[in-house]
Design a protein that fits this description.
Structural class: alpha+beta
Order of helices and strands: HEEEEEEEEEEEEHHH
Mean pLDDT: 90
Low-confidence stretches: none
Binding site for oxalate: 109, 114, 119
CATH architecture of the largest domain: Sandwich
Keywords: Apoplast, Disulfide bond, Glycoprotein, Manganese, Metal-binding, Secreted, Signal
Domain Cupin type-1: 77-213
Number of helices: 4
Pfam family, one: Cupin_1
Number of domains: 2
Signal peptide: 1-21
CATH topology of the largest domain: Jelly Rolls
CATH class of the largest domain: Mainly Beta
C-alpha cells in the first residue's frame, strides 16, 4: 500500500513539474472556477470565485482509490479524470490527474489525442503495452510497462494503452492542462454527429463504402 501511494504521488509531482508549459500562468494565488455568469463574454478558462469565499472543498476530490467500471463499454477500460470540472481550484493552474483501469486480457484505452496537454503515466498494477505515433513521418514509439514504470505521451500525438496480461491493470496519469480534452480517433472518424460523408471515409481508408456505413452504425451506439 505504501508503494501504491508513492507511485500516485510521483505521478502527480511529475505533472506539476511541467504543468505551466501550455495553460496560461496564473496572475493570482488561485482562481477557483464558478459557473459562467449570465451574458458573460468568453474567457480562456473559467470565471473565478471571490478568493475570500474559497473553501477547502474547492481544492479537493475523492475516489481515486475506487476501481473504475470496465464492463460498460466495448473497449473494457475506464478513465476517471479529475480536471477543472471536478476540482474547481485547478482553474488556471494547468494540471489534471486521471486514474485508468483496464480489464484483464485486452482492456484498451484506444488511440486518442489530448489537444491541450502532455500526459505522463505511471503503472501501479499489471502490464500495459503503450505507445504513440509521431507526426510525419509517422513512426510508432511503443514499450511494455510494468508496475513502477513511467511513460510520456507528448501533446497532440495519437497514443494508446493496452492491457496484455491476464490480470487487471491500473495506471495514474498527470496531464499538463486543467482541461486537456480527448479526441478518440475511431469515435471521431466513424461516430460524429452529423456523420462524415461515407464517400470521404471510403476513399481515405481505402474501404468499400458499405463497410464504412457498417462502421458508422456500430459507432452510433
Amino acid at each position: 500500500m505504501k508503494s501504491f501511494h508513492f507511485l500516485v504521488l510521483l505521478a502527480f509531482a511529475l505533472a506539476l513539474s511541467f504543468a505551466s508549459a501550455f495553460d496560461p500562468s496564473p496572475l493570482q494565488d488561485f482562481c477557483v472556477a464558478i459557473p459562467e455568469p449570465k451574458n458573460a463574454v468568453f474567457v480562456n478558462g473559467k470565471f473565478c470565485k471571490n478568493p475570500n469565499l474559497t473553501v477547502a472543498d474547492d481544492f479537493f476530490a475523492w475516489g481515486l482509490n475506487i476501481p473504475g467500471d470496465t464492463d460498460q463499454n466495448r473497449v473494457r477500460s475506464n478513465v476517471t479524470l479529475l480536471n477543472v470540472d471536478r476540482i474547481p481550484g485547478l482553474n488556471t493552474l494547468g494540471i489534471s490527474l486521471a486514474r485508468l483501469d483496464f480489464a484483464a486480457n485486452g482492456g484498451l484505452n484506444p488511440p486518442h489525442i489530448h489537444p491541450r496537454g502532455t500526459e505522463i503515466l505511471v503503472v501501479v498494477e499489471g502490464t500495459l503495452y503503450v505507445g504513440f505515433v509521431t507526426s510525419n513521418p509517422n513512426r510508432l514509439i511503443a514499450k511494455v510497462l510494468y508496475p513502477g514504470d513511467v511513460f510520456v505521451f507528448p501533446i497532440g500525438l495519437i497514443h494508446f494503452q493496452f492491457n496484455i496480461a491476464k490480470t487487471n491493470a491500473v495506471a495514474f496519469a498527470g496531464l499538463s492542462s486543467q482541461n486537456p480534452g480527448v479526441i478518440t480517433i475511431a469515435d471521431a472518424i466513424f461516430g460524429p454527429d452529423p456523420p462524415i460523408n461515407p464517400d470521404v471515409l471510403a476513399k481515405a481508408f481505402q474501404l468499400d463504402k458499405n463497410d464504412v456505413e457498417k462502421l458508422q452504425k456500430l459507432f452510433e451506439d
